[in-house]
Design brief:
heterodimer, A: alpha/beta, Rossmann fold, about 25% strand, B: Fumarate Reductase Iron-sulfur Protein, Chain B, domain 2, 4 domains, four-stranded parallel sheet, three-stranded parallel sheet, elongated
Chain lengths: ~260, ~650
């Protein structure tokens, strides 16, 4: 049975120039999709079908793209969930973080909620799909990976640890057919009131490196941070585990 | 000869075969794309182009130019007379005597060609080319003997049947090479295709001492971008490949070949011939593409056809990406073949159709598209280097004498030292100057050389639109690559005459900073002390020298400081590339050596302590060579050190 994979893409924003571009993680989502099903991949975007950035995605070798034509003020999630329900889809790939607007930050979660599918966050690779189950590698900090198996269908957000998006070829982008699909959407009421401003990175606490030798500096740069307060609970009963989480939340003042 | 009619029949038969071959060959070229050529004017101009322009290039090798004049001149003359005397039977003794003289001339020339083949240099192709001198000698001797009776030296019928048989064999052998081989792909093909190539050259501006180095714009939005198959070349480009004499002068000059990267310009052109005629490279008898691992492809493995994709079986993409576009091969080619045009044409296909620019290529192109500079810096930080320079912006001044085109050196700390030095010199000379500041964009040089002509054209148009808002008389830049784009390549997109007419209507003068500084020195606007450092040599940047013909201004500037330049063996039009052009540091194809290291060896061979450069890219490449090595400085930096203090 052939796999039905959809990559959702957005219009990104270059961190230095602020110019519209192929979003980095969305590009990786297309790359992963191409790896899984090659040209059978469907790539979907909600927005303006005439946006030139879409050609940058198409330039990766997509014969066509589906654009659910909508105004900027429209909430993409209900349109997408409706579209995804119509087709028989196995895997939906998105980015982890938005580069502009709401592109992909919350989208996978909201879609999963609407469709009742699991979300696999921060995927580095989908190794294989067999008998309705996918072997997935999750990206963890410091180059670590966690292997999980997930039942189809599911939504995966693709981490920047995944394979980088291939070069976009000008002519392929030019020739791809952009299929514009009319859809009924509703205004995103929450977003209407938003004010956008430039993000400022949080000031970092200066770290005094006490290391004297290169080996020590290397260790300091690569070693896992030692929290010391964590605890691995494997053999406890579910109730005890839940209790531990609840206590931690209380302690960290997440719930009062 | 015993049978009178035999020679004429043989000659006419081979002539007819040659004509059939010529038509067939011409049909191979016609498979290429149409290109506007003035056929009549080209044919009329051909003799002059051959005798003057081509001979000018061959003349660099005196030995070869003399023997070629003797052999080719002798052959053309004797062939014409052979047709008169032996085919039409014009029995005048004087004519026969002239034929004998022409044949002697040719014989002497051919002897020297044969002598060179005793121990041929590695750049020369062997195989059928080793046979050619023998065929030339056979031709001269055969027709000499055949003509002796007509000149009245020998009685008719001398030698009897034996001589008749020997002479007939001689006629067939030599004319097979000289006439049949000329149009059916033998070594003499160079004469036939070469003559037509000169007539229908794609850059006729190059003849008569002109210069034409700007790349031709790619057509965007068509069926194919760049050249995928041999049939995507213009027809006169295909003709040009056929003109190759396999002398290997290109190979001897190519920096990538010398560095052991998988490029040999001669083999590349021969592979193009394989592509246009179909077949394999099994008959190629010259140096192969160098292979770093020592393995390489065996001859006969490369297969091509007029409608086969070139990079799928004929040549490896790495061969195309090894080129630094330094134009040393084009400058050296006695047949005036345009290697760089062909290479960039094929790169365009790889980048725009395949999305396969190697190594850092994709990242650099993406950066140029998103930020207008190759390293993805914020466009708003382009003028940070000039924070302390008190340089006016065009946005404020609107009208200025000199617009200083800063180029992407603005983002690089080493290049900024050159920029600051140049600004100090301009201030010392009270030049009315301004910069575009953050409005400036990458010139598009790298994008174009990497085959992304879409991005180059977009940058060119946007830069021209910016320039059109202001009035200025001159554009001066310290970057020869930007200089080349502005001067030679923006013209194709300058529909409004921003540069060709300018605000004054006289056209904008586009200058390299060394040319401009030399003008200032000549006008006495810059007071400079004599240079007291050690020995100095000068490295000609390819894009200043070969691309724009500026060899003198940098040297005059150095001389104005009292410097006697210790010239490198390869300088001026034969300058060796630093390895930094054509996006080569980005695609970074592995070889056995680094081009920059070889260039630094050239510098060290002059025992200079300082190498003067006129290009930030060359500076970066040469300074990348491990120390100890001579100091590398831009001419502006050297000048600013000698700026005389004003005494009040």
């Amino acid at each position: 049975m052939s796999l039905n994979v959809v990559s959702l893409v957005s219009v990104g924003r270059h961190p230095q120039s602020g110019r519209a571009r192929r979003a980095d993680q969305d590009g990786r989502a297309v790359e992963l999709g191409l790896k899984l099903v090659a040209k059978a991949l469907s790539v979907v975007h909600v927005g303006d079908p005439d946006d030139p950035v879409l050609r940058q995605y198409a330039g990766m070798g997509l014969p066509s793209m589906t654009i659910l034509k909508q105004d900027k003020s429209i909430d993409a999630v209900p349109i997408l969930s409706q579209f995804l329900q119509q087709e028989k889809i196995d895997i939906v790939l998105t980015g982890v973080r938005a580069e502009s607007g709401e592109s992909s930050g919350m989208v996978p979660y909201l879609l999963a909620h609407a469709l009742g599918w699991p979300v696999v966050a921060r995927v580095a690779d989908i190794v294989s799909v067999k008998d309705g189950e996918a072997q997935v590698l999750l990206a963890l900090p410091r180059g670590q990976r966690r292997a999980v198996s997930v039942k189809l269908p599911f939504i995966a957000s693709v981490d920047h640890a995944a394979e980088i998006a291939r070069q976009s070829a000008f002519a392929l982008g030019l020739r791809a057919s952009i299929e514009s699909v009319e859809s009924v959407g509703e205004v995103d009421r929450i977003r209407v009131d938003w004010q956008e401003s430039v993000a400022k990175s949080r000031p970092k606490r200066l770290k005094t490196v006490k290391a004297k030798t290169a080996a020590e500096r290397f260790k300091a740069a690569t070693a896992k941070p030692e929290g010391g307060t964590g605890k691995v609970m494997k053999n406890e009963t579910p109730k005890e585990k839940a209790r531990a989480i609840f206590d931690l939340l209380l302690e960290e003042k997440v719930i009062r | 000869m015993v049978i009178d009619w035999l020679p004429s029949v043989l000659i006419v038969t081979l002539l007819v075969l040659a004509v059939i071959g010529g038509v067939r060959r011409a049909n191979l070229w016609r498979a290429g794309q149409p290109d506007k050529v003035n056929i009549v004017a080209g044919l009329l101009a051909m003799p002059k182009r051959y005798l003057h322009d081509l001979h000018h290039v061959v003349e660099r090798d005196k030995y070869m130019s003399r023997i070629h004049v003797a052999t080719a001149g002798g052959f053309v003359l004797s062939m014409a007379l052979v047709i008169l005397v032996h085919v039409f039977g014009v029995g005048h003794q004087l004519l026969a005597g002239a034929l004998l003289v022409a044949l002697v001339l040719m014989f002497v020339g051919a002897l020297f060609i044969a002598k060179r083949r005793f121990n041929p240099p590695s750049r020369l192709s062997k195989g059928p080319w080793m046979r050619l001198p023998k065929s030339l000698l056979t031709f001269a001797v055969t027709f000499f003997v055949l003509t002796l009776p007509m000149a009245g030296v020998l009685p008719e019928g001398t030698g009897g049947w034996l001589l008749t048989i020997v002479l007939s064999i001689g006629i067939v052998l030599s004319l097979s090479e000289m006439l049949f081989g000329m149009t059916w792909g033998g070594p003499m093909k160079h004469a036939f295709a070469g003559a037509l190539h000169l007539a229908f050259h794609r850059r006729p501006e190059r003849f008569g001492g002109g210069r034409s180095t700007g790349l031709k714009p790619a057509e965007l939005g068509g069926k194919v971008h760049g050249v995928a198959k041999p049939s995507d070349f213009k027809w006169n480009q295909l003709l040009g490949f056929d003109a190759c004499v396999q002398c290997g002068k290109c190979e001897a000059m190519c920096p990538a070949f010398a560095a052991g990267q998988p490029l040999n310009p001669k083999k590349l052109i021969q592979d193009m011939v394989v592509g246009l005629a179909g077949g394999t490279d099994a008959n190629y008898a010259g140096s192969p593409y160098p292979a770093a691992d020592g393995k390489g492809k065996a001859l006969g493995e490369a297969q091509g056809g007029i409608n086969n994709v070139i990079t799928a079986g004929l040549i490896d993409a790495d061969t195309l990406w090894s080129c630094t576009t330094c134009r040393a091969c084009v400058e050296e080619c006695p047949m005036m073949i345009e290697h760089v045009d062909a290479i960039v044409d094929m790169r365009r296909f790889l980048t725009m159709e395949k999305g396969k620019t190697p190594n850092k290529g994709a990242e650099i192109l993406e950066n140029i598209i998103a930020t207008d500079n190759p390293n993805g810096h914020s466009p708003a930080s382009r003028t940070h280097w000039a924070a302390d320079q008190n340089l006016p912006l065009m946005k404020e001044k609107k009208v200025v004498d000199v617009l200083f085109w800063v180029s992407d050196g603005a983002f690089d700390m080493r290049s900024q030292r050159i920029l600051r030095a140049f600004v100090s010199l301009m201030k010392a000379a009270n030049v009315d100057v301004a910069i575009l500041g953050d409005e400036e964009r990458d010139s598009g040089d790298v994008a174009r050389r990497l085959g992304d002509d879409a991005t180059f054209q977009s940058l060119a148009k946007r830069n021209l639109a910016t320039l059109s808002q202001y009035e200025f008389n001159k554009i001066v830049t310290t970057d020869p690559h930007a200089y080349h784009c502005l001067r030679n390549e923006y013209g194709d997109f300058d529909d409004d005459g921003v540069l060709s007419k300018g605000a004054s209507g006289q056209g904008v003068e586009i200058l390299h900073h060394t040319t401009f500084l030399n003008q200032l020195v000549q006008q006495g606007l810059l007071k400079l002390d004599a240079f007291k450092g050690g020995k100095v040599t000068y490295h000609d940047p390819c894009y200043l020298g070969r691309y724009n013909g500026e060899y003198d201004a940098p040297r005059e500037l150095l001389r104005s400081l009292g410097i006697e330049i210790a010239e490198m063996e390869r300088s001026g039009f034969r300058s060796r590339c630093c390895g930094g052009g054509g996006g080569a540091p980005i695609t970074d194809i592995p070889g056995e050596r680094r081009i920059a290291d070889m260039r630094m060896e050239d510098v060290i061979a002059t025992s200079a302590e300082l190498v003067a450069v006129g290009c930030q890219q060359c500076t970066a490449m040469l300074e990348g060579v491990v120390e100890p090595r001579p100091v590398v400085k831009d001419i502006a930096e050297i000048l600013v050190g000698q700026l005389a203090e004003e005494v009040h």
